[in-house]
């Protein structure tokens, strides 16, 4: 008999952060008269003059975790024959085949759209993403290296980034094709070419443009945009999904 335990995300987010980290509120940040962060203040820069994406972020609209294509018109995204078949099977499974339900990684870009927060740690040579979901991490290298020519496929693939003005452009290849893009079951294959554009539009807000190009699953590339907000007064908590 198999048992699975997973602490619900809503319960995790409801835990009083102050009890764990009394000094969790961000220091030296623009605040309103009521003490809350001023989300409309100018976006910060690093000492090197680059956009500073550091901080703990969460999706503003949680519906994209359920369906990443929620805002797309019918003519903006279409399945190949294989993609339609995989999507149909994923839907008919009613979530039991969802990797997340089996304590497996959720893959990208589902974690950015999820209801759970994540932390961005930025240095000159790399941007690291620390996800509360599954207590996982991801590295985006900024040191000029090329993507691996023949990568060993994995859940998150391999990511390199570059700056386009104040926008961080992230290219990801080499996924294993086992993850879902969202809870609806939109599939990917090992041919996925994922392009994300992170732009901090103000101190408390960030836009993420997500470009999905997977010729095995979709007839043409498609793009969606999600919004993030900066989290104040909290830290990431450990989330472990156990399967026995």
Task: Please tell me about this protein's structure.
This protein is of the alpha+beta class. Helices cover 12% and strands 28% of the residues. The strands form two sheets. A nine-stranded mixed barrel has the order 2-3-4-5-6-7-8-9-10. It has a two-stranded antiparallel sheet with strand order 1-11. A hairpin with a 2-residue loop joins strand 8 and strand 9.
Largest sheet report: 9 strands, mixed, barrel
Strand residue content: 25-35%
Straight-line distance between termini: 9 Å
pLDDT averaged residue by residue: 89
**Rg measurement, Å:** 18 Å
Number of domains: 1
Estimated structural class: alpha+beta
In short:
By secondary structure, this protein is an alpha+beta fold. It is built from 5 helices and 11 strands, in the order βααβαααβββββββββ.
Q: Which helices and strands, and how do they pair?
A:
Layout: E1 4-5, H1 9-14, H2 17-20, E2 55-59, H3 63-66, H4 81-92, H5 110-113, E3 118-122, E4 126-131, E5 136-141, E6 158-164, E7 167-173, E8 193-202, E9 205-213, E10 222-230, E11 242-243
Parallel strand pairs: 5-6
Antiparallel strand pairs: 1-11, 2-3, 2-10, 3-4, 4-5, 6-7, 7-8, 8-9, 9-10
Can you tag this structure with a few keywords?
disordered N terminus; 28% strand; alpha+beta; two-stranded antiparallel sheet; single chain
